[in-house]
Specification:
Blueprint lengths: L2 H4 L2 H16 L3 H8 L3 E10 L5 E12 L5 E7 L5 H17 L6 E6 L8 H15 L8 E5 L5 H15 L19 H18 L9 E5 L3 H12 L3 E7 L2 E5 L7 H11 L8 E4 L1 H4 L6 E4 L18 E3 L8 H10 L2 E3 L1 H4 L2 H15 L5 H26 L3 H20 L2
Parallel strand pairs: 3-4, 3-5, 6-7, 6-10, 10-11, 11-12
Antiparallel strand pairs: 1-2, 2-4, 7-8, 8-9
Helix pairs in contact: 2-4, 2-15, 4-15, 5-6, 7-8, 7-13, 7-14, 13-14, 14-15
The structure holds nicotinamide-adenine-dinucleotide.
């Protein structure tokens, strides 16, 4: 997926924000206030590696907006992390929390490193050192990180520990924690479950169900694998999946046995070489004939060079910013529906909100309540976006941004600047 290097994810949020702001009639000053990040921090993170050498990594935390609540957004460990990517993802979080109407702003963080080539001890040390550098900017009412690409509940535990050792016991300082440390039941699967709910709602609008839908998923990490499991449970057929090592496609377009595939990944570290499936490259996987394509890896994977060759009828954006503006235009012309990322993958941040709220109140919800409330938030958000899209005759993405930008603009004008 070297496409990520060729396209700037910032252009995606820029274009979507500008279209929404223009439709809402926001003036230049209002637009400037809404698009300018509140705070950007870049830190050098020196870490002693296992071989005794000292290496300095670059880390970022960008708080785009705190107008509707504390900054909220994931922490990504990946070699391609840079300021532009984190800035774009932070802004996308502002619009995402607004679409699902939870009391947070938008933030994002990242460290340019490759944790797949680091030991557990090295990942722990880089995490702790990063928190030591930025802890004054974090906090339950300031900025609350969560997992993203290559970070998980264990990384969140170290953040919780490092932050709490300086500020006192503070489980609400980070979400996506293990349940034993105050994590919420249902958080692990929440982003995938949110994708499921949005897709179900969308298909309902056309009196269709999930059963028999042929689905292709790029990325088989937290989001991709959980979406696959939940969709397959509801009768969809996952015909192809991929990860950073490559992809597999089922023979005869039959659904892959997802539970066995997850066990295979646990054992071997990749979806590749799954018995009975054929190999497919990540590029070709996106072009397979299917009903629904779910990009669930990195941004900018659907772009002007491949969009016209995509055969899926629906694209459910589980990854953040997977579609460039040129690709969006091509999909609109071809009649391909794009379920926008700021809505479709908002299940994770929604359950993060539930986790934060439980931590602040020192209570625990059972999983049924978490999943039922998630469904309520996701279907309500989908309905608002789909109704506006139908009424204004605009795409779901334009409608999602318009709902979001309007909410943040209103909050900003009420608070005064
Ligand atoms: P993850 O690290 O758990 O999984 C990422 C997956 O993508 C892995 O299977 C990895 O092998 C694959 N991948 C990485 N590079 C790839 C490449 N070049 N080609 C194909 N596959 C590649 O990350 P995740 O948490 O599942 O996040 C995936 C996407 O979903 C990201 O865009 C993230 O920002 C977004 N997202 C995550 C959450 C969440 O709760 N984790 C919430 C909202 C959005």
């Amino acid at each position: 997926m070297n496409s990520a290097a060729r396209f700037n994810p910032r252009e995606i949020v820029e274009r979507n924000f500008t279209r929404a702001a223009a439709r809402l009639g926001l003036n230049d000053e209002q637009q400037m206030m809404l698009r300018t990040p509140f705070r950007e921090v870049k830190v050098e993170v020196p870490v002693r590696l296992d071989d005794g050498s000292l290496k300095v990594f670059l880390g970022y935390r960008i708080q785009h907006s705190g107008v509707r609540g504390p900054g909220k957004g994931g922490l990504r460990y990946h070699p391609a992390v840079d300021a532009d990517e984190v800035r774009a993802l932070a802004e996308a979080m502002t619009w995402k929390t607004a679409v699902v109407n939870i009391p947070f702003g938008g933030a994002k963080g990242g460290i340019a490193c490759d944790p797949t080539k680091m030991s557990r001890g090295e990942v722990e040390r880089i995490t702790r050192r990063f928190v030591a550098r930025i802890h004054l900017l974090l906090g339950p009412y300031r900025d609350v990180p969560a997992p993203d690409v290559n970070t998980n509940a264990q990384v969140m535990s170290w953040i919780f520990d490092e932050y709490s050792s300086r500020h006192g016991y503070s489980p609400a300082c980070v979400t996506g924690k293990p349940v034993e440390l105050g994590g919420s039941l249902g958080r692990e699967q929440a982003t995938g479950r949110g994708v499921l709910f949005v897709l179900i709602e969308h298909l309902k609008d056309f009196s269709r169900g999930l059963k028999g839908q042929k689905i292709v998923i790029q990325g088989f990490g937290n989001v991709g694998s959980n979406a696959a499991l939940l969709l397959a449970e509801r009768g969809a057929e996952i015909i192809a999946v991929s990860d950073v090592c490559g992809g597999i496609v089922s023979q005869n377009q039959k659904g892959l046995p997802v539970k066995e595939l997850v066990a295979h990944v646990k054992k071997t570290g990749s979806v590749t070489k799954f018995p009975g499936a054929e190999a497919v490259s990540n590029e070709d996987l996106l072009l397979l004939d299917c009903d629904v394509l779910i990009p669930a890896a990195l941004e900018c994977v659907l772009h002007k060079d491949n969009a016209s060759k995509v055969k899926a009828k629906i694209i459910a954006e589980a990854a953040n910013l997977p579609t460039t503006p040129e690709a969006d235009d091509i999909f609109a012309k071809k009649g391909v529906t794009v379920l926008p990322d700021i809505l479709t993958n908002a299940g994770g941040v929604t359950v993060s909100y539930f986790e934060w709220a439980q931590n602040l109140q020192q209570v625990f919800w059972d999983e049924e309540r978490v999943n039922a409330d998630l469904e309520k938030y996701m279907s309500r958000a989908y309905r608002a976006v789909a109704d506006l899209a139908a009424q204004a005759k605009i795409s779901l993405k334009d409608a999602a941004y318009r709902v979001a930008v309007e909410r943040v603009a209103r909050a900003e004008s009420l608070r005064g600047t």
